[in-house]
Design brief:
The chain is an alpha+beta fold. Helices cover about 35% and strands about 15% of the residues. Bound molecules: zinc ion (ZN) (2 copies).
Length: about 100
């Protein structure tokens, strides 16, 4: 499992450096060295500019709920209960894919 994570990390680092993989589509996180769903709750994954995990209306970070068993991932603003954006949707999709990838490992 760890070997698979490291292999995927290296592969994605190279693909990203080559410009063929967008950071948003990575299943691993090069900052934390983990699958994206395992560290997405970290403040490092909040970005008010791109609106990753950010509610513009409330100026607030979205809370994260990851259910590895069902594979479900939700991100909601603790103030208004919404706070969605294209960037956050993409992050949710990456988390769901990384749960799948980890299972397959
Ligand atoms: Zn991370
Ligand atoms: Zn909000």
């Amino acid at each position: 499992m760890i070997a698979n994570l490291i292999a995927t990390l290296v592969e994605e680092d190279l693909a990203e450096d080559d410009g063929v993989l967008a950071p948003d589509d990575r299943l691993t996180c090069h900052v934390h060295g983990r699958w994206i769903h395992q560290c997405v709750a970290s403040p490092v994954h909040v970005n008010p500019v791109t609106r990753h995990r950010w509610c513009r209306g409330c100026d607030a970070e979205l809370g994260v709920v990851v259910d590895e068993v069902s594979g479900d991932v939700a991100m909601r603003c603790p103030r208004c209960g919404r706070g969605g954006s294209a960037a956050t949707n993409r992050l949710i999709a990456a988390c769901r894919a990384s749960i799948e990838a980890r299972r397959a490992a």
